[in-house]
Amino acid sequence: MTQDNQPHAATTLSARRLKWHAQDEAIILMRTDCPVCRSEGLTSRARVLISCDGRDVVATLHQIDDDWLALSEAGLSEAAWSRLGAEPGADLKVSHAPTLRSLSDVRQRMTGKRLPSDGFDRIVTDIAAGLYSDIHLAAFISACSTLSLDIDEITSLTGAMVNVGEQLDWNTDMVIDKHCVGGLPGNRTTPIVVAILASLGLTVPKTSSRAITSPAGTADTMETLTQVDLSLPDIRRVVETEGGCLAWGGAVQLSPADDILIRIERALDIDAEGQLIASVLSKKIAAGASHVVLDLPVGPTAKLRSAAGARALAQHMTIVARGFGLKTHCVFSDGLQPVGRGIGPALEAWDVLRVLQRSKSAPPDLRERALTLAGAALELAGRAKPDTGAAMAQDALDNGSAWSKFQAICAAQGGLREPPRAAQTAPVAAIRSGVLKAIDNRKLSRLAKLAGAPERPAAGLTVHKRLGEQITIGEPLLTIHAEASGEIDYAMSYAHANAGLFTIEG
Amino acid sequence: MTQDNQPHAATTLSARRLKWHAQDEAIILMRTDCPVCRSEGLTSRARVLISCDGRDVVATLHQIDDDWLALSEAGLSEAAWSRLGAEPGADLKVSHAPTLRSLSDVRQRMTGKRLPSDGFDRIVTDIAAGLYSDIHLAAFISACSTLSLDIDEITSLTGAMVNVGEQLDWNTDMVIDKHCVGGLPGNRTTPIVVAILASLGLTVPKTSSRAITSPAGTADTMETLTQVDLSLPDIRRVVETEGGCLAWGGAVQLSPADDILIRIERALDIDAEGQLIASVLSKKIAAGASHVVLDLPVGPTAKLRSAAGARALAQHMTIVARGFGLKTHCVFSDGLQPVGRGIGPALEAWDVLRVLQRSKSAPPDLRERALTLAGAALELAGRAKPDTGAAMAQDALDNGSAWSKFQAICAAQGGLREPPRAAQTAPVAAIRSGVLKAIDNRKLSRLAKLAGAPERPAAGLTVHKRLGEQITIGEPLLTIHAEASGEIDYAMSYAHANAGLFTIEG
Asked: Any idea of the CA torsion for B99, B105, B110, B111, to the nearest 10 degrees?
C-alpha cells in the first residue's frame, strides 16, 4: 500500500530564491491558484515535502494571490534554499509531507508519559533533519519542561543529540573543554583558559558559538582577533600542532539538533534544566571531550538566579555526564556584575589581550576568573594537585607562555590581528552621587546590543565602575561605542530611560 | 520609567498588501537593510509592534534582501493586514513588541505549576488580542496537555475564553444548543435537530463552524441551502421570529481565543480533554445557551476511541458546565461508520432535506440520530417526560412541522435554495466479495477532501454500503463526486491505493 498521504507524484515548479529570512524556518511560497496547490489540495501552513535533484526538504507552505510570483514558480526562504542546495530555476516537486512517526512520541510525552530512549532517538533524528515546524518544536520543548525530564530522559536526549551529528575523536584519553552557562556580559574567560591549558600541554579543541541573544559570543570575540570559520580538517591541524583551538562551532555539525531547539527556547525565553544539560553535554561529548569545567555564574540578573538552583543543576549535570564517561567540575561564580571592562566582540577581545599580555590595565576580575577556571581544569585533569591548579595556571600566564600559545593558535588559525575600534564613543554619566549597589546585567546587555553589538564588532560598552565604588554625580559610569552617531543616540536614549541599569544609593 | 523595550518612537514605513496567506499568522516583511530594522536592531523572527492610525498589531518579522520590496515599504500577511485595517501606502510604525506579562504565566505553567484564574485571564486576553506567536501558542497548549488541566483550571480557562468575546443574551431562561465532538463524516444532525426543536417552540440560536480538517462543517452544508453569513442583528431577528437559526459562527466573536488555539491544536493533531471542554463550553456559554445536548460518537476511527474516555470526558464536561449554570446531557453514539449517505457540503444537505421532507430515500440512521438528540434536548429542557422526547421529536418530524420550520428559518436567513450537484461522478467498486466488516472514517474523510470538499460544495462522496452488508465483487461501494475529471482521478488513485478504506471479509 502506498503512503497514506502521498497519493501520487507532484507537478513541477521552478525554484526562486527570495532572499527571505525567517531565521531558520524552511518556508515555501506558492500561488494559491497554482496547479500544485490545487491538485494536491494544499492549504496555507500545510507541511510539504520539497524534492529537488535527489534532495528532500520539509517546509511550511505559505500562499500568495499576487502576480509577482508566477503560477509556475515557488519562492523559498533562505533556510529552505540552503538545505535544498537549489539553483535558480531548478525543478521542484512539492507534495504533502509524510506523517512523522516521531510526532506520536511527542504527543505521547504531551499526555504526561515519560519516553523511552528510542522515542528521543526518533524525535531528535527528525528535528536534526529539519522535519519539525516551529509549532512541533515548541510543543516538544514545552512537554519536556512542564513535566521535567528525569535523569534517564536527559541521558536519552543527550545521547540522541550526540548521535545525529558529527563526533570528533582526538586519539587521547584527556581532552579538556570548558563551558559557561552564560548570562553574564563580558565573561570572556575562554580564550585565556584555552591558552593557559594548551601552553601546559593539554588538548583543548574549543569550539564556541556566536551570540544569539547576548552582545557577544566567544566566536564573535575571537573573530576580531583571528579567523574562526574553520573546517574540521583545519581544526584538527590547529589542535594537532598547538594543542588547542578557538574556532566557531557552526561550521562543524556537532549536535545539530541543539541549534534548532535553542532557537525556539530563546523565543520562549525558557531554558529548562533538562534541556540545558542535554544541550551543553551533547556539544561537549560530540566534540570528543573527556573532562569539562563548567562555569555557573549566580546572581539576580544572571541566568542562574539562586545558589540552590545552581547546585541542583550541577548535580544533575554531573550524573548525566558520568553516564557518558565525561568527568565534570562545576565552578560557582559571582554573577552580580559584568566581568572585565568591555562588553561587545572587540571590546572583550581587548580585555582578553590585556590579561594575556599582563598589561597593568588588565581587568583583575577577568584574570582571576580565568585562573580559577584554568586551575579547576588542571586539577580535574590530574595535572595539578588539589588547590594548586590556580597557581600553576598563574605561572603559565605570568611567565608569558599562555600569551605565546595564544599567538601561536591565532597564527595557526590564519594570523593574529588587532581588534577594531569604534568610530564614535560617548559617556553615560551618573545622575546622582552615592555608592554603586547594583548593576542590571540584562539591561547592560541590551544597551550593548542597541549600540550595534555583535553585528558591528567594535560596538558595545566599556563599564568604568564596579559594585561598592563611590560615585560622584556627573562621573562617567560607562562609555558607549558605536559605528554611527545614530546608534550612539539610540543607545543613549535607552540608557537615560533606564535608571535601573545602575542602582546608586546613600 | 519608559518601557524597557521601547526606547523611542519608530520610523515610518509604507504598508504594502502582499496577499500573503500564512493562515492566521500576522507577519510583516521588511528589508533587512531598511532604516527601521537597523535603528531598532530588529532581526528575523523578532516579535514587533505595528502601529497604524491608532491600531496596534503584534506580528512576527520576516526579512528579505531583495529589491522587489522597497526600503521604505513593509509587506503584510493577510492576517496582519486585516487586523490592522490598513490601506495600501498607509504609514506604519514598527518597533520591538512589548514584553507580555502573560508569557510569565505560560512559563510558570511550563514549570509544572498550576495556574490561578487570573493567569488564564491574562493569557487568554493576550491570545485573543493576537499577541502570541505560533511558538507561544504551541508551548501553552503543550503545557496544558502534558500536565492535564484540572477541573479548576478548565473552569478558569473556559471563563476567560467567554469573557474575551461577545456574549449573547436571549431574554429567556431556556436556550438550547447542541454540539457534536466530531470525527464522524456525514453526521449532519444539527439542521434537523434545530428544525424540530424550533418547531416545538424552543429557542435554538445555533451557530456552527466551517470545516477545518473535515470534508464539511454544518456551516458549509447550510451554505448550500441558504445564507449563513449573518451579522449579530440578523441572527437576533431570525431567532426572534423563528425560534432558531442555522448561522455561521465566524461572523460573530464568540470565544475568539478558541479559534486561535484550535488552529495550533490541529497542526499538532492533539485535542487534550481540558482544552476540548473549554473550547466547546466557552462557545456555548458565549452563545447564551442554558441547556446543551452533546453528541459523543465513539469508535476506533472516530475522535473518541474508547467508551471509558468518552465517559470521563462527559463527566468532566458536566462538572465544568454546571459551574457556569449550564445544564448538559451527553449522548454516546455509534462512531463505527459514517452517517447518512453523503459526505461533503451539498451531499450532506441532500440527506438533511430527505429526512426533513420524509422522503422514502431518507437515510434512516441520520433520521434516528437526529430524533435521539432532539428527544434528549426536549427531555433536558423539561419539555418531554423521561423517555418520551424522541417520540415527541418524531411527531414534529412526521407531521411536517419540522420541515415547515426549516423552510421558515432558511427564508428568514435569505431564502432556501437547492444544493448544487457535481459535474462528474465515478463509482469505486469492491475488489472482493464478502461481508463489510469495517470502514475507516478518517480515510473516508480524506478521500472526500481529495475530491474537492469542502471548498467545492458539490464535491464529496456517497457511500452505498453499511457495516454487515454482503458485498459482491465489482459492486459500487461508493461514488466520488467532483467538479473536474482531474479531481476524480486524484481521489480515485487514493481510493485504489487504500484497501483499508473498506474491510471486506469472509
From this structure: 110
